[in-house]
Every structure is written in C-alpha cells, then in structure tokens.
Automatic annotation (TrEMBL):
Location in the cell: Membrane
Lipid bilayer topology: Multi-pass membrane protein
Protein's recorded name: BTB domain-containing protein
The keyword Transport is annotated on this UniProt entry: yes
SUPFAM superfamilies (alphabetical): POZ domain, Voltage-gated potassium channels
PANTHER family to which the protein is assigned, alphabetical: POTASSIUM VOLTAGE-GATED CHANNEL SUBFAMILY C MEMBER 1-LIKE, VOLTAGE-GATED POTASSIUM CHANNEL
Sorted UniProt keywords: Ion channel, Ion transport, Membrane, Potassium, Potassium channel, Potassium transport, Transmembrane, Transmembrane helix, Transport, Voltage-gated channel
BP GO annotations: action potential; protein homooligomerization
Transmembrane segment boundaries: 164-184, 219-240, 322-342, 354-373, 385-407
The keyword Transmembrane is annotated on this UniProt entry: yes
Coarse class of the protein's main subcellular location: membrane
C-alpha cells in the first residue's frame, strides 16, 4: 500500500487528474482504491514516463466519481443520463453508491418521466400484424392473407387498397345516413285482431288485440340490408386474413362491427309477421347507434392526429386519477342531493321542485358540473345556501386536478414529438 500522502496521477480520456492516495482509499475494494496497491502498475495501464494511470473513460462523469471519494457524497450534473451514470459507477466498482438527496430527486423524476412517457412508444400497431403475416410469405395462403389484410388495414399500400377504402367509406357514410333517415320515417305497428265471438263475427266488440304487425318502409329496410351484407363480407374477410385473431376480436371497433349486423336481420325476420315484442324493436334501434363507430375508421385514411394519440396516452396514464375524481363527484352528488332534498321536506314547502330524490340528484349533477340548466332550483333560503356550497365544491373539484392533467399531457406531447423527430431523422442503412 502506498503512503497516504503520496500523489497519484490519473489520465481519464485525455484529462490529467492529481489526487492523494488517502483519497482513493476512502472506499476499499473499488478500482481506484486498488491503484494504491504496490502491484497496481502491473495490473492497470500505467505509463512510467508520466507516472500516470490511463483509463479510456468519460472525464465529465469521472469528476463526479472523484469528488465522491473526496466528499463521501455522490452528486451529478443536471443533464446526466441515469443509465450512463450507472454504467460509470459500475466500472469503478461503485454500483451501490447512494446518490445525494439533492441529485436523487431530480434524477429520479427525470428517469420516471422517461419510463412513463416511453411506455407506449413501441406499441404494436397494424404494422406489427403485417410483419407477422409477412413471415408466411412462402406459402400461397400466407401471401394472399397478407395482401387482403393490407388492403383493409393499409389504405395507401396499393391502388386497389385506395379503391377499397373509398368504397368502405361510402358504405359507412350511407349506413349512418339511413339511420338518420329512419327517424324521419314512420314505423307502424298495426294491431292484429282475432275474432272471439264466433256466433257474430261482424261484431268488433268481441275482438281482442293479440299482437302487432311490424311495418317499415321497404326501401329503408332493403338499403340497410344491402349495406349490412357488405359489412358482413368485410368483417369475414378481415377476420380470416387477420394474423392475430384474438386481438382482432378484442378490438372495440370490431366488436361494434359485429353487433351492428344483428338489428337488420332481426327486423327482417319480424317484418310482416305478428309480434308482441314491440319493445325489442326499440332496443334494436338503440343498438343501431353502433353504426356511428364506423365513422372512426376514417382515421385510417389519414395519419392519426398527434393530439388524439397524446390524449389517449394521457387518459390511460391518468386512469386511476380519473376514477378517483369520478368517485369524489359521485360522493358530492349523493351528499348535496340528499341534503337539499331532505331540507325541503323538513321545511314542508309545498312548492318544492324536488318531487323525488332522483330530481335532487339530477340538480346536484347539473350544479356540480357548473352547467346550471335552471329546470330545478331550490326555493328555500337554506336550500339556496346548500346550492351555493354545491356550486363552489363543484368548481374546486374540477379546477384542482386540471394542472395535473396539463403536466401529464405536456409530458406525453414532448415524448411523442421526440419520437416523431427521431423517425424523420432515421436514415435506413444500406442492405
């Protein structure tokens, strides 16, 4: 072991450092501590002319390492990459060195943001499915499967894909127009009468309605059926050509495509036949609202807007906070709605607008969200005071979380912008 006051010279990446042997012996067992041993000149790259040890490492990070031996505290610059710092510490045998609290916080926050905003950077998209299908290019079925899938999912991959995308778009717009046109047409339910007085068949006093004939304009039914036949063919082709059928069936848009196939066929079965399930037909009309999900496929014709992608990332990242916010709003609705309702009951006000507690909950929702329809308002003085407190709580509940949403949105926006710039700057290597 060299004397404590003996100086040791280090050449780190071309920069010369000078320190005492006692300084390097602060952490026994590390690489710098072994430089103070007698056999260090034979073990490491030692230049006897300059009497220095050479290490081909970064001098910027080494300054922090050397200061760690001097002060027993590990600090790092503001823009230090955590992975680079960890690699440097591991090289010098300081993997377990604790980072100073002042630097630990900023470095941990930056690393956590990098991990959070990088979670969805490499999301498997349609291209991933195409790559998997492309592995089967040697087989005839694999080649056609890839082509059919690309025609439906990559509208700009070929001229035929562009034409198919235009046809699909026309059908999607057409089915939505038919759904809207149905609201302007009369759907009739003609009663079915069965004579029960066999001795006097002409007497209508002895007849009873046993069901209804479902009557709908034929051109609407036939037009909708024509569109649905196309959608069925499209759905089957996409399902058969999809490389990952499980993911295909789990997609919300594909589930909506599957559900929208049923209403027309059920109506076609009921058309012209007596039925007593009039309410079923109204539920089918509600199910038809899934037609409008088809308009979301227009996004395939253009690149997904950056804001839309960032908004989806932010929503998933803040899912827990959103649920918490909704639970807080639910508590406020139940509390203020019940409070205002029972206050009016106690005051025995005959003109109270709260006919039941459901009306009070509706008033609480409108007030907390600061919409203020004005259809239901408290009349009593205490009720108005409760209404003022409800409005203030609603404003605070909505305003306070907004900065958190903005910060998270900005973080994802910056991460996506960096990713887009990297994509544009990436130059393909020559094969």
């Amino acid at each position: 072991m060299k004397p404590l006051e003996e100086k040791i010279f280090l050449n780190i990446g071309g920069l010369r450092y000078e320190t005492y042997a006692s300084t390097l012996q602060a952490f026994p067992g590390t690489k710098l501590c072994r430089l103070t041993e007698p056999q260090a000149a034979a073990t490491f790259d030692y230049d006897p002319d300059t009497q220095e040890f050479f290490f081909d490492r970064s001098s910027c990070l080494f300054e922090d390492v050397l200061n760690h031996y001097r002060t027993k505290q590990l600090h790092c610059p503001d823009l230090t990459c955590k992975s680079a710092l960890d690699e440097e510490l591991a090289f010098w045998g300081l993997s377990n060195a604790p980072l100073a609290p002042c630097c630990w916080q900023k470095l941990t926050i930056a690393e956590r943001q990098k991990e959070e905003y990088g979670i969805r950077e490499e999301e498997p998209e349609v291209a991933g499915l195409l790559d998997q299908a492309g592995r089967n290019q040697s087989a005839w079925r694999g080649r056609w499967q890839t082509r059919i899938w690309a025609m439906f999912e990559k509208p700009f991959s070929s001229l035929s894909a562009k034409g198919l995308a235009a046809v699909c778009l026309l059908f999607n717009i057409g089915i939505c127009c038919l759904f809207i046109a149905k609201a302007f047409e009369d759907t009739h339910f003609l009663p079915v009468y069965i004579l029960e007085n066999q001795t006097n068949p002409t007497s209508v006093l002895h007849t009873k309605a046993h069901g209804f004939f479902y009557v709908k304009p034929l051109f609407l039914l036939h037009s909708e059926l024509f569109c649905l036949l196309w959608f069925m063919l499209e759905f089957l082709l996409r399902l058969l050509s999809c490389p990952k059928k499980k993911e295909f069936l789990q997609s919300p848009l594909n589930v909506a495509d599957f559900l929208c196939l049923f209403p027309v066929y059920i109506e076609l079965f009921l058309y012209g036949h007596p039925t007593s399930h009039q309410r079923l037909l109204f539920w089918l009309d509600i199910l038809r609202a899934s037609y409008f999900f088809k308009l979301l496929k227009v996004l395939k014709l253009v690149e997904t807007p950056l804001m839309l992608r960032v908004l989806s990332y932010t929503s998933w990242a803040l899912l827990r906070e959103i649920i918490t916010l909704l639970l807080v709003l639910l508590f406020e609705i139940l509390f203020f709605g019940s409070l205002c309702y029972f206050v009016d009951i106690i005051e025995d006000n005959a003109e109270t607008p709260f006919g039941d507690i459901g009306s009070a909950f509706w008033w609480a929702v409108v007030t907390l969200t600061t919409v203020g329809y004005g259809d239901i308002v408290p009349i009593s003085l205490v009720g108005r005071m409760i209404g003022a407190c409800t409005a203030l709580c609603g404003v605070l509940t909505i305003i306070i979380p907004i900065p958190f949403f903005c910060i998270k949105f900005q973080g994802y926006y910056d991460a996506v912008m960096v990713k887009e710039k990297r994509k544009r700057q990436t130059v393909p290597l020559p094969s």
